[in-house]
Write a structure and sequence with these properties.
Helices cover 9% and strands 26% of the residues. With 118 residues, the protein is mainly beta. The chain has a 5-stranded mixed beta sheet. Strand 2, helix 1 (19-24) and strand 3 form a beta-alpha-beta unit. The longest helix is centred in the N-terminal third of the chain and has 6 residues, at 19-24.
Amino acid sequence: MVATRPHDLPVPLEIADSPRARRRGLLGRTGVRGALLLTPAHGVHTLGMRFALDVAYLDREWRVLSVRTMRPGRLGLPRWRARHVIEAEAGAMARWGVRRGARIVVEGAADGPGRGDE
């Protein structure tokens, strides 16, 4: 689950933490329920995607470095300070209040303060 603040409603979150899962990402899908966490990751692309994505780049402390909307067929610039990337359907990050500087809480995450046990 992912939330911008502990009192926010949780968002369903899939975790892609293996090289194969990160390579596949959301390719071949027509949408996503909730979001996909790519970890570790510092960049993404939308080559072969069927829908536009909101992409949030997070640092080691689970703080949002930037949020971008990417149309299909794009190659995003890597964010070298990013440790994690969250992908969701375009418009989702604004609805959830995810913006630069926000802290993401991920329940069950193995590293960092974003574990949701605070």
